[in-house]
Protein 1
Amino acid sequence: MTSLVIGGHGEQADPVAEAQARSASLAQFFLGDPQGWKGPEVAYPGGPVALREAAEQAGVTLVVHAPYVLNVATSNNRIRIPSRKFLQQYLHAAAEVGAVGLVVHGGHVLKSDDPETGFDNWRKCVERLELPVPLLIENTAGGDNAMARRLDRLARLWDAVGAAADADRVGFCLDTCHAHAGGEELVGLVDRVRAITGRIDLVHANDSRDAFDSGADRHANLGDGHLDAEALAEVVRLAGAPVVVETPGGRDGQAADIAWLRQIAG
């Protein structure tokens, strides 16, 4: 499947080299500490312009992943307000390096909260953002009060976000491990998601170390976990979107997974 745009999630110092080491045409990376509250930093020598130019010359598509700590859905002002601020900063930074999108997790509300609070917080967030690149909301594996674990919640989230002026700049990132661990069957999943969102902009092709509906976000190398290989391949084929593997083993482990996926999804 030579037309498949695929890559892995690697170190942020040189995403182009990370893609080339995986024989890939795409690189996903962070712009800072994924667990920290610090603004984006481009580690590539020469800064964002140099990275953009290097990626263009190498034919490498860039995708930036926002820090895991961001949660624009929560009612906790100490988290929601800085999350909005940093999300805007990361969107601009992603645009500067020439990324095709910024991936962010759907987040969650507090145990005592009405989930509708989280959906409305997402709407308000999108309404206030400048979106120089698409913002790709990713489904998550766990949490009873998550905004994007199960498709019924995703539908409510999409209705809320769809009310914002720039709703067409908000896309969806489908993670196969998260779907499986979150309680959604992979067979037919692409059609069910598209019926809600109308789009799939990126696929995170990850196997799962844990059983169906476990709520555990633990990735496994492709073919080594609980996901059915053909069902995983079906998601990739039908989504028709760029693919990122976020699997263990660094460059070698992900290179093997990329090769495996090219073969089975071809």
Note: The two ends are 4 Å apart (CA to CA).
Protein 2
Amino acid sequence: MGTLTITGLGKAYRQYSHPAARLLEWFGALPRHQLTWILRNINLSIKAGESVGLIGRNGAGKSTLLKLLTGVSVPTEGAVALTGSVAALLELGLGFHAEFTGRQNVYMQGYLQGIGQAQMDALMPGIAAFAEIGDYLDRPVRIYSSGMQVRLAFSVATAVRPDILIIDEALSVGDAYFQHKCFDRIRSYREQGTTLLFVSHDPGAVKTLCDRAVLIDGGGIVMEGKPGDVLDYYNALIAPQATDSAMRQGLPEVTAGGGMRSGNGAVRIGQVDLLCNGTSMRAVVAGQPASIHLQVQANQALADFTVGLLIKDRLGNDVFGTNTHHLMQALGPIEPGDRKDIYFEFPALALGPGHYSVTLAAHASSDHLAGNYDWWDHALVFQVIPAEGVHTIGICHMALNFHQQAVEPS
């Protein structure tokens, strides 16, 4: 089975002040370079069958780490130990020869994976069927679109179930239909015991596919744990104007309810409640009218600001979100000390039975990256119970009409 152990891993590149300095060093002069560290002191252990997502900002070192794990790049320090077969899909088209046909590239990739001619002949029909690129399979790769390249690359990389599957963000290039196919195959391999390590900026994919998430920032591991917790911390980390004391220490505030909170406090969210017919509730009937009420207070003068909400299911998957910017509702101007009561009203709360949490945010423009005033995860937790006499499954409770009609025999 596939296991992965990373110990003290680091990668640095030499930086020379002048091209001549590199030449002098080659001829035995004293070192004339400085090391620029991309990754340092990475320690991580992944068990067989575990699924781990790597998240982080662009330039944090995620792709570099995957290259070190797959042998594409050589570490400056530390070691990597892998057991079992490894399949990797890194940079788009990596390893493909532009002048060769897709079929020729498939065979070459198979040989690099240690698959013999006879086995590749047997696998080729399945690879072609999964990629669905038609006659382009026998045309040069240089005329492929980026989507066609990722289709073929994923198809050949996963033609044989590996012990370890490593995937970079390349899957985001494919169309929605092919992404569904890819994730179905990944889920199938997970169920069969494949260890998964992949980079993604899609929180839904991380929450759905991963047992654990690892956040990389500044070339090191900042946090690892449950995907929902790590993604909440990541949201706080990427808000560029968050300046409250918790963020200055590099850690988000953890509220009494366990949710993470960040922001510079220009606007602060106060009371939060779920109302049904004006009564505070924590359990509502599916399809019942309800509203989320919150009070905000300004701590500085603002021409305008935005308040948004995001409803998540018990696994942390995003269910529904919107904000006053998208609803075209202006909330400003506002002066220090001013308070506002805000109501998000649902004529029918169309959620299926289950437990849900509400994340709230106050920010400058269309999203919290434009100026994070207050971001509050798990500000409210509530339960939806089934409507009497109605049985449904899933996270939504959609209005549905049904009728039937007899067909006269011909």
Note: The two ends are 60 Å apart (CA to CA).
Protein 3
Amino acid sequence: MRVLLGVMWLLHWLPLPILARIGEGVGSLLFLLVKSRRRIALTNLRLCLPDLSEAERYTIAKKHFQAYARSVLERALLWWAPVSRLRRLIHVEPRVPLDVIQSGPTILLCPHFVSLDVAGVAVVLETNLCSIYTKQQNKVFDDALRKGRLRFGPVRLFSRGEGVKPIIRAMREGLPFFMLPDMDFGEKDAEFVPFFGIPAATLTAPARIAGTVGAKVVPVIATFLPGYKGWKVTFYPPWENYPGGDIAEATRRMNAFIEERVLEAPAEYFWAHKRFKTRPPGAPSLYTKD
């Protein structure tokens, strides 16, 4: 792992177009070799985008592997590149909503697009935040990842096992909560709501936390700019009347918003995750082997 991190440190000196193309080449190779993840991605795409042809879904899956590998190598820039270089590469639209953040508790809702780390950097270049952190099994990589995420200033990272109380406390102290809402963590604290028409165990925490502290929910999406020119980080207006009186409906509304963003950049969404691993009682698995 130390050797791999050393290689990544060297890569951060490269121009982004070269680094990105190397990442895409690695992704093409992984698409051929990592059959289990390729199968998961293609299964998700069949479920979520049934109107496309199998060839079209195969192309998206391959581009996704390229985009994901590219995003991993581009973390070298996020971890080690000068702030001046990052500011040139990260294009924020319309701006980091400091006025919203400073007006009261705020959830920055960031779905799992491959460049989500860029969205986090765009925020911490302007203000502090808190988020949930999953400790990595490899200590060397875990240390590097934490240092990379903390290098711009104090960021409070909580483990999922700590629950929501420290997050709510931090939000009430003025820190926005950078939240990744769209992975399958099982039935606990989740509702089965549609994601592209498929019942998906979806965390209700965004709605519950927003309701508890009166937080504004500001979606943020990070995607690649064309021509290897950097990344675009888009902050959307705060959701109105959210969560309302129905947690399940609020969670369904969140998934519908994510669906719309996925259709805008389908190859950059994280298809290699078993989004539908948890099934409603009695429903069969959707990830059987070919």
Note: The CA atoms of residues 224 and 231 lie 4 Å apart.
Protein 4
Amino acid sequence: MNITLNFEWIEAVMLASVRIVAFVAVAPPFSYNGFPLRIKGMLAIGLALAVSPRVTPDYVASGTAEYIGALLLEIVVGGVLGFLVMLVFAAVQSAGNLIDMFGGFQMAQAFDPQAMLNGAQFTRLYHMTALALLFASGGYQLLFGGLFRTFDAIPLGAGLDLAWSADAITNGIGQTLLAAVQIAGPLIVVLFLADAGLGLLTRVAPALNAFALGFPLKIFLTLTLGSIAFIALPRVVSALTGQAVTQLIGVK
């Protein structure tokens, strides 16, 4: 029995799987260490097989050296795309970090080896909630859809435009900081006004030692108003998912 192998198809699928593996290793929610590496690899191979009808017809086989270079380029492309998605969703984590810092929870920070982040309660709570909402709302499917479209904009082995990558990363960092302030801004303003009010009360009545009440008051305000801000996270994650898909579709 003779078995004929289509080496061009195999090479194209391998290149596609390398890009997807690099993307899954960096982009949330797939980068969470709670998912075994075996599952991530199987997911990447399955997605590469699913996208093979789109990438294999135009692929032309190359030599060994060129193919190794194409593999390295696909790792870079997948990593950059995953990093852009990670920047978008880092806004939720940064918002939780701001709430911890202004609310007095920063002293209780700890390292989470699963999420690979160092933060206090609200940082980890917002991060885990964003991951759960991505799976519950089907946002991960939109991310995969955006990733599949990158194969049309960036053929296998083509590489990224460095100028576009630098500009996208710079804009992504700025948008992350802006989104974090927008998410945590109302609560930060309330906590700042509480500090200002305690300062004025101390000036009026120095013997009262109003700052001794500052920590429990800020913790109470953070827990009360933080729960209200927590309700808005589904809409925030939905908007961030759309922004991440737009970043993926606009690759060059």
Note: The first strand starts at residue 110 and ends at 112.
